[in-house]
């Protein structure tokens, strides 16, 4: 049976050695883990084998030979194929084993893989990452995990080798949802969307603040926006005026027009500030623009 300890001493499988998977598997090897790798294109295993990894010829074999198996695959289709397809990891799973899918997939895919893994009596953790190739190389990823808590605790020492932080988000699907929401760059929309899909917006603010898309402004305004508080630092009326009238936006819009570049987001943002002003929020902080989006969501609900 899997034991929860502060150090992971079992054998680790790694399926999918692409841009992200290769440096992640390499970091596990460098940290002294006993790693078995598999990749569809076998040649990508070779550098890792030369550094001490073992090789198995199918996801099924990897899972059968390991205590915990990670998968880092392109998309939902490949994640399902590698887990549930012919000679897939599921066939090698059983009681006492764990499957950690770190690919970016949708909620339905994560639930499907979870069901197949659970049907074998094994444990499942979804753990998509926020990060990039460089952050994978540097062991600085952010893990957005969900589902089996005991597997989360068990693999935490491994996640700490691969990343700088990890979030446990509860039921299956929440990791995938958080990853997809984080990847939406529109800050204010992120807060509303995360709320609507049942995520804690304050955790979202924290996740974003630690990733590559973090912005000091978002970290500064996010926590109070979550509480619907807008202590005035820069009044909304000035922001809207600025969007409409000041040189920087006018010139920027002019420049965009000169090369026929559409700038719909700037235009849409300005409309939202106008709506917020019409709600009497002119003297609130400009982050109160989120109220315009809340009202719009109610309009369309
Ligand atoms: N790149 C980035 O900055 C980030 C990526 N991610 C996510 O990480 C995941 C991996 O991305 P990344 O490493 O960049 O992608 P890559 O394209 O570099 O690697 C994809 C991996 O999936 C394998 N694969 C694809 N299709 C199949 C299939 N049908 N059967 C078996 N194996 C398959 C590839 O195998 P093969 O070598 O044979 O092609 C390869 O190992 C994605 O979900 C991505 O969204 C998350 C954060 C950042
Ligand atoms: O998926 C990409 C990321 O930066 O996160």
UniProtKB/TrEMBL annotation:
<dbReference type="InterPro" id="IPR036291">
    <property type="entry name" value="NAD(P)-bd_dom_sf"/>
</dbReference>
<feature type="domain" description="3-hydroxyisobutyrate dehydrogenase-like NAD-binding">
    <location>
        <begin position="173"/>
        <end position="292"/>
    </location>
</feature>
<protein>
    <recommendedName>
        <fullName>6-phosphogluconate dehydrogenase NADP-binding domain-containing protein</fullName>
    </recommendedName>
</protein>
<comment type="function">
    <text>Catalyzes the NADPH-dependent reduction of glyoxylate to glycolate as well as succinic semialdehyde (SSA) to gamma-hydroxybutyrate in vitro. May function in redox homeostasis and play a role in oxidative stress tolerance by detoxifying glyoxylate and SSA generated in glycolate metabolism and GABA metabolism, respectively.</text>
</comment>
<keyword id="KW-0520">NAD</keyword>
<feature type="active site">
    <location>
        <position position="179"/>
    </location>
</feature>
<dbReference type="Pfam" id="PF14833">
    <property type="entry name" value="NAD_binding_11"/>
</dbReference>
<dbReference type="InterPro" id="IPR013328">
    <property type="entry name" value="6PGD_dom2"/>
</dbReference>
<dbReference type="InterPro" id="IPR008927">
    <property type="entry name" value="6-PGluconate_DH-like_C_sf"/>
</dbReference>
<dbReference type="Pfam" id="PF03446">
    <property type="entry name" value="NAD_binding_2"/>
</dbReference>
<feature type="domain" description="6-phosphogluconate dehydrogenase NADP-binding">
    <location>
        <begin position="11"/>
        <end position="170"/>
    </location>
</feature>
<keyword id="KW-0560">Oxidoreductase</keyword>
<dbReference type="GO" id="GO:0009507">
    <property type="term" value="C:chloroplast"/>
</dbReference>
<dbReference type="InterPro" id="IPR015815">
    <property type="entry name" value="HIBADH-related"/>
</dbReference>
<dbReference type="InterPro" id="IPR006115">
    <property type="entry name" value="6PGDH_NADP-bd"/>
</dbReference>
<keyword id="KW-0346">Stress response</keyword>
<comment type="similarity">
    <text>Belongs to the HIBADH-related family. NP60 subfamily.</text>
</comment>
<dbReference type="GO" id="GO:0050661">
    <property type="term" value="F:NADP binding"/>
</dbReference>
<dbReference type="InterPro" id="IPR029154">
    <property type="entry name" value="HIBADH-like_NADP-bd"/>
</dbReference>
<dbReference type="GO" id="GO:0051287">
    <property type="term" value="F:NAD binding"/>
</dbReference>
<dbReference type="InterPro" id="IPR051265">
    <property type="entry name" value="HIBADH-related_NP60_sf"/>
</dbReference>
<dbReference type="InterPro" id="IPR002204">
    <property type="entry name" value="3-OH-isobutyrate_DH-rel_CS"/>
</dbReference>
<dbReference type="GO" id="GO:0030267">
    <property type="term" value="F:glyoxylate reductase (NADPH) activity"/>
</dbReference>
<keyword id="KW-0521">NADP</keyword>
